[in-house]
Amino acid sequence: MTQTNRPRKRPSKKTEALEIRLSPEEKSAFLDACQRAGRTASAVLRDAMRGYSQFGPMARLPGSPTMIVSAFAGASIGALLLLSAVQGTEPGEQDRLYGMSLFNSYAVSDFYDHELTLAEYLERSGSVQSTFEQMVLSQTDPDAIPAQDRTTIGERSGAIFGQLFIPANLDPALFRENMERVTDGCWAAMDDVRYARLRRRFESWDADQNGRVTAREFSDATLATIRQSFQLQDADGDGAIAIADFDPSIWQARDDANRAASETGGQGNVSMRSQSFHLPETACATERVWAQASAPTSPDDFFSAATREDGRLRPNSAAGMVASRDLDANGQISFAEFVATSGY
Ligand SMILES: [Ca+2]
Ligand SMILES: [Ca+2]
Ligand SMILES: [Ca+2]
User: Which residue of 67, 189, 256, 326 has the lowest C-beta tally within 10 Å?
Assistant: First the structure.
């Protein structure tokens, strides 16, 4: 049988109908709620179904959650509701979404619209001081931290350390232990830098520049970040992460090459731009005296040759790090393994 004898594929339909049975009381309560919200029943149900498909049963549903959940549960006999469900048209929509627990924690507001606005992102990110207060609380009374803040605190504090403290040679642990000594001016200077960075980051997520970040845009940006991190750790650039990639001389050579390129080539503007996102040298003058970081750990210390201790791999050794993510145990971390073990 040749290809031409096969029956032709029917073109796929753009929309399909779905029947849902529910009691007359449920139907009328649902339609009333939709009318009060100024939305059609179809639109509310479509939103709910997309939310459920993407985020599972824990998604907060627009409209009337109880009604929609009971509709999904195939509730009771009675009225018949017909609606057309628009099928996903882009192949990417069926792909896994990345970073959704972070996205939900930043994007959820009173109305669950599956979109993150800049105002939501800035508000949910909190100030540097409030993030430090939550870090203290996370050790003493974690339940006192709102659930969405517990999800984001790792990311927020990591960014604050990496973007503010390390470049300024400040020790975040000393800040946390001596918060009463930190001046208002220092907190404010840190917030200025941080909020400028958050704005820049939001713009980088908002691929179509419409001022709102969708789950898809956030997922694409998250995957791009995972890829960047992979490429950074694949120091020799052979497409996989292995112990050879942790040779400090490779990192040193790459740092030197990057520095040379930024000093001589057209990359100069980039480094000047990122400089403007650093804490000004005049800021936090008194804090720099008592909160100065001690000498940073060198790559040689971190990726210590002593990979075994009592016969076990140390998790922060190169061999331990590779072993923890090398799911098929072939001695190297592929990009798929890196993504699967990235926690997103
Ligand atoms: Ca957008
Ligand atoms: Ca490699
Ligand atoms: Ca592997």
Answer: 256
